[in-house]
Amino acid sequence: MHCPFCRHPDSRVIDSRTSDDGLSIRRRRQCPECGRRFSTTETASLTVIKRSGVVEPFSREKVVSGVRKACQGRPVTDSDLALLAQQVEESVRSTGQAQLDANDIGLAVLPHLRELDEIAYLRFASVYQAFESLDDFDLAIAELRDHPSTGSIAKIDAARLDAANDGTGE
Ligand SMILES: [Zn+2]
């Protein structure tokens, strides 16, 4: 790494620190020529090929803006969306691929969005899985009913508990 001050072609790492999310490493470097210090950030490269063929770096903000539309009017907060984007980044990075299709990102969103909000999930899935008819919605809804997300299970359990309490009530 060239020194950004004097362009000396070498530098010495004096400190390395992993970011809180574990996705990047910040290195403090010193130039052996001019003695000045600078920082570099190292991340594993992860790029996305858009449908247009344009290649761009993976961006959590893009994930958030893509999902936000599906969440309109739903009880989903900005921090829910930020967490979802982080989960999506972790799952796409865990595939070990350095380059993904935009569609792969969309598919990686689905299981996490489903945990977050089933209506938003259905809206998003209808776009990414290219639903063509009401039958596709019926299938997706049937699948949601057969395999509820953990959030829904909690709601169902609470409902059962209420029912049980009513049963024993006076
Ligand atoms: Zn220098």
UniProtKB/TrEMBL annotation:
Keywords for this protein: ATP-binding, DNA-binding, Metal-binding, Nucleotide-binding, Repressor, Transcription, Transcription regulation, Zinc, Zinc-finger
InterPro entries for this protein: ATP-cone_dom (IPR005144), NrdR-like_N (IPR055173), RNR_NrdR-like (IPR003796)
Essential cofactor(s): Zn(2+)
Source taxon at top rank: Bacteria
Domain ATP-cone: 46-136
GO biological process, one term: negative regulation of DNA-templated transcription
Zinc finger (unnamed) in chain: 3-34
GO MF, one annotated term: DNA binding
Function: Negatively regulates transcription of bacterial ribonucleotide reductase nrd genes and operons by binding to NrdR-boxes.
NCBIfam families: transcriptional regulator NrdR (TIGR00244)
UniProt family annotation: Belongs to the NrdR family.
Full protein name: Transcriptional repressor NrdR
Gene giving rise to this polypeptide: nrdR
